[in-house]
Design brief:
Layout: E1 5-16, E2 19-30, E3 34-38, H1 45-53, E4 60-65, E5 68-69, E6 80-83, H2 95-105, E7 107-113, E8 119-125, H3 128-141, H4 157-169, E9 175-179, H5 187-204, E10 207-212, H6 215-221, E11 224-229, E12 232-237, H7 239-244, H8 249-254, E13 259-267, E14 270-273, E15 276-279, E16 289-294, E17 299-303, E18 310-318, E19 323-329, E20 332-338, E21 347-352, E22 358-361, E23 367-373, E24 379-382, E25 385-388, E26 399-400, E27 406-407, E28 413-414, E29 420-425, E30 430-433, E31 441-450, E32 455-460, E33 466-471, E34 480-485, E35 491-494
Parallel strand pairs: 3-10, 3-11, 6-9, 9-10
Antiparallel strand pairs: 1-2, 1-4, 4-5, 7-8, 11-12, 13-14, 13-16, 14-15, 16-22, 17-21, 18-19, 18-21, 19-20, 23-29, 24-25, 26-27, 27-28, 29-35, 30-34, 31-32, 31-34, 32-33
Helix pairs in contact: 2-3, 2-4, 3-4
Length: 503
């Protein structure tokens, strides 16, 4: 741990009911840094914050603060304070007394020499003069001068938020934790408070750790953004790095608007998408499938004759400083931002600067599952249901007997019950049903990416098995659907020796 790091989380994990809320979390935070944990609901960001605060204890790993492991210390022994979305102010107290409440309970730690010359430690309460000076300093920082005697119930939401922040900083914590503190405010007030929080951070010079699902808040205020999904860190970087160089499709889709496409590497520094070939700074193996991200502001609309990439304008929304266009390129829909006005339903061309094309290695090109057992009906046994499969593909020249046994070309019989196999299921081989009972499995939509001409969905079963599905239809996050797999598209490989199953 270097001197610059005020706090470091090392391989921190936390489970609830046997499921990881945070898994193998590693992060070092510098003194005075404004760090934001960003991600959708349920990604583990608040759980991580609560472990730093001491409201939750990690199951494993270390939380180091100035070289000391504080992972098992109670909250009151940690030099951190937390501001919550619900301000938890005392309605019967005025602003001054709300801010002073914790300070009056706190004690000053004093080291001095005793009669024998040895150092002794003593604790005393703050004097009222000290309380007065500290509270007024905190109130001034949050711009609530002359509000000291006001009852907190008469304040606006933004003013109450400032009281909560003043109460948190009056004890001079090393780290201020903020758990979606602006969530209860209206849009205009949120934007104002974002700027005020950043200004407070500069005044105080202490470390801020902020939790939000709002990417605009993260981009506006942060020095560093930690993007999370399913309890795992996806990417850590500055707002500029996260926006301009997302590491995967999830980050690209979550941070700002983006156009996401399937592309193919055509050789060194060459990719093809939207039926056009581009020379790019990055190289991938020939014919490898990759993801391409184009930000709407990085696409320029031109007259129809200027570039070979033809498009038709479908829709237009005025956004104040620019127009946002929905355009069709063949069967692919793109979002484009441009300051110029174009008419609807006219053909135009698009210019894409190759240096602004961001290319990412695909995380998965097919659904893969390990150690899935077979039952006596030659079905794959997932925790949530059964899927029929052709077992004859396990052995060249084999077939399946009437009784369901695998017969080799030499008529050797195999009973494959309990054989474990690895499974591959293409994204397009899964059909979705609005009636969950019509599927072999049931899943909930947890992610949705629009890839120009189709949606790529991630469905999660109750046993937390993920299935990626290509669909022409959009579904809301949380939608419950049935999944049915085309048996002819499933590929399986045996784990172990088939001879052990000979009968």
């Amino acid at each position: 741990m270097t001197k610059e790091h005020v706090i470091e989380l090392m391989q921190v994990s936390k489970q609830f009911d046997g499921k990881y809320a945070v898994e193998n979390f590693n992060l070092a935070i510098q003194k005075g840094e404004f760090v934001t944990f960003l991600g959708p609901s349920g990604c583990g960001k608040t759980t991580t914050l609560r472990m730093i605060a001491g409201f939750e204890m990690p199951d494993s790993g270390k939380i180091m603060l100035d070289g000391q492991d504080i992972g098992q210390l109670p909250p009151y022994k940690r030099p951190v304070n937390t501001v919550f979305q619900r301000y938890a102010l005392f309605p019967h107290l005025n602003v001054f007394d709300n801010v002073a409440f914790g300070l009056r309970l706190n004690k000053v730690h004093i080291k001095k020499k005793g009669p024998d010359g040895k150092e002794i430690e003593e604790f005393r309460k703050y004097t009222e003069e000290e309380v007065f000076a500290k509270v007024n300093k905190a109130i001034k920082i949050v711009d609530l001068d002359e509000f000291e005697k006001r009852n907190v119930t008469t304040l606006s939401g933004g003013q109450q938020q400032r009281v909560a922040i003043a109460r948190a900083i009056v004890n001079e914590p090393k780290i201020l934790l903020l758990d979606e503190p602006l969530g209860a405010l209206d849009l205009k007030m949120r934007k104002e408070m974002q700027l005020e929080l950043k200004a407070m951070h500069r005044k105080l010079g202490i470390t801020f750790i902020y939790v939000t699902h709002d990417q605009e808040e993260a981009l506006t205020m942060s020095d560093t953004i930690v993007v999370m999904k399913d309890g795992l860190i996806q990417q850590v970087g500055t707002p500029t790095d996260i926006y301009n160089n997302p590491i995967n499709a999830f980050v690209a889709n979550f941070i700002g608007e983006s156009n996401l496409f399937n592309a193919i590497s055509m050789g060194p520094n060459t990719i093809k998408f939207l039926n056009q070939t581009y020379e790019v700074p990055h190289s991938f193996p020939e014919q490898e499938k990759v993801d391409v991200v184009l930000r709407p502001e990085d696409i320029e609309i031109k007259p129809s004759h200027e570039t070979p990439l033809k498009a038709v304008i479908l829709d237009r929304i005025f956004k104040g400083v620019h127009y946002e266009y929905s355009v069709m390129v063949g069967k692919n829909e793109l979002i484009v931002q441009d300051t110029k006005l174009f008419e609807l339903n006219v053909e135009v061309s698009l210019y894409i600067d190759p240096t602004l094309i961001h290319i990412m290695k695909k995380e998965r090109v097919i659904n893969t599952y390990k150690d899935i057992p077979l039952n006596d009906k030659n079905q794959l046994v997932f925790d949530d249901g059964l899927i029929d499969v052709n077992i004859a593909q396990l052995l060249d020249g084999s077939k399946v007997s009437i009784e369901g046994f695998l017969l080799s070309s030499k008529n050797i019989k195999y009973d494959l019950k309990n054989l474990k196999v690895s499974v591959e299921i293409p994204f397009h081989a899964i059909e979705l049903f609005g009636d969950p009972d019509m599927g072999q499995l049931v899943g909930f939509v947890v992610q949705s990416y629009y890839q120009g001409d189709h949606y790529q969905l991630v469905l999660r079963t109750e046993s937390e098995e993920d299935f990626i599905v290509d669909s022409e239809y959009a579904y809301d996050i949380g939608t419950k659907l049935g999944l049915k797999v085309d048996t002819s598209k499933i590929k399986i490989k045996a784990k172990g020796d088939l001879n052990e199953y000979e009968v």
